[in-house]
Specification:
By secondary structure, this protein is mainly beta. The protein contains two helices and seven strands, in the order E-H-E-E-E-E-E-E-H. It has one domain. It is about 10% helix and about 45% strand. The strands form two sheets. Strands 2-3-4-5-6 form a five-stranded mixed β-sheet. A two-stranded antiparallel sheet has the order 1-7. Strand 4 (about 55-65) and strand 5 (about 75-90) form a beta hairpin. The longest helix is centred in the last third of the chain and has 10 residues, at about 105-115. The mean pLDDT is about 90.
């Protein structure tokens, strides 16, 4: 998603809200058998702070889909990642304005990566599988003879 500073400035405002859905160009999850579903949802506000400068803030809403790391149940979990970035022309250390445009794709990718969980759980207190009999301890009790 590209934000055009000139177009915003032509409206006579120095602030504009935005919302869009974004298809990821790469898989971002390192969790086995888990992927980030596209599209991710992005909403936020851009505030012009100078001729070629802006402050961009908002949130990225993404869903992980795959096997629960503990019980192997197929699951989808939604996560929200916030971002707040100062963007200006020639910014070698961060996000940059190029030709009065801001490409939010790197900001979105970084916001997802920063808040990517290490594991995907079907529920926060997943009990997993019994090491002895293999039952899903979220659904039934252990059937092991020796406890």
């Amino acid at each position: 998603m590209i934000l055009d500073i000139r177009a915003i400035r032509r409206t006579g405002k120095d602030q504009q809200d935005f919302y869009f859905e974004y298809a990821l160009e790469q898989e971002l999850s390192d969790i086995p058998n888990v992927k980030v579903l596209s599209p991710v949802k992005v909403n936020g506000t851009i505030t012009l702070t100078g001729t070629h400068e802006a402050f961009v803030e908002g949130e990225v809403i993404f869903t992980l889909s795959g096997e629960c790391t503990k019980c192997l149940t197929e699951t989808n979990r939604e996560y929200v990642s916030e971002f707040a970035e100062e963007v200006f022309e020639g910014n070698a250390e961060g996000y940059s304005v190029v030709n009065d445009r801001i490409d939010l794709s790197k900001i979105i990718t970084d916001a997802i990566l920063i808040n990517m969980p290490v594991t995907l759980l079907c529920i926060d207190d997943c009990k997993g599988l019994c090491a002895g009999c293999g039952v899903n301890l979220n659904d039934e009790q252990c059937k092991c003879k020796n406890k």
